[in-house]
Design a protein that fits this description.
mainly alpha, 197 residues
Amino acid sequence: MDALLSVAAGIGLAAACGFRVFVPLLALGLAGRFGFVPLAHGFEWLATSMALVAFSVATLLEALAYKIPWLDHALDALATPAALFAGVLMVAATTAGLPPALRVPVALIAGGGAAALVQGATVVARFKSTALTGGLGNPLLALVELGGAVFTSLVAVLMPLLGLLLVLLLCTGFLLWVALKFGKERPHDRPHRPERP
């Protein structure tokens, strides 16, 4: 059961990386420091004072930078690979109970996959917001994303199984939306063209 909880916590934190990169790192560092989440061997540095100060400063800067329209799109270009890396790191750092041969693929697939799906959803939402509001709605979207990162991180640490369920619902919803939005055009949706004689 401990292994399942640690995997669930890691996947929840990985998904939170898709909203914001540094909020889940700070959450995991604090959770490791105060004994809520045991950190795997080699990841104890996440709970050191130096790491926590660095994550705190980075969280503040990231939150402020996303409030600036157009800069947020540039940040997405950097945040996407960073979110994938952080997502893998979250699962690797929390799955101390898994054997190394299993921990690596779980971290890559589950951690990287959860972070990628949520990050993809935020990038799409930002493009939509920019198109509809000329970028003026982006600071509000950034606030929602920050709230999502904080909420998902807290649930992943305090109630890992509920966090995992939340991640599954988020990812399923996004995948269904993509399937509906970009699915193959049905024949009856195509405009009718009269045949030439």
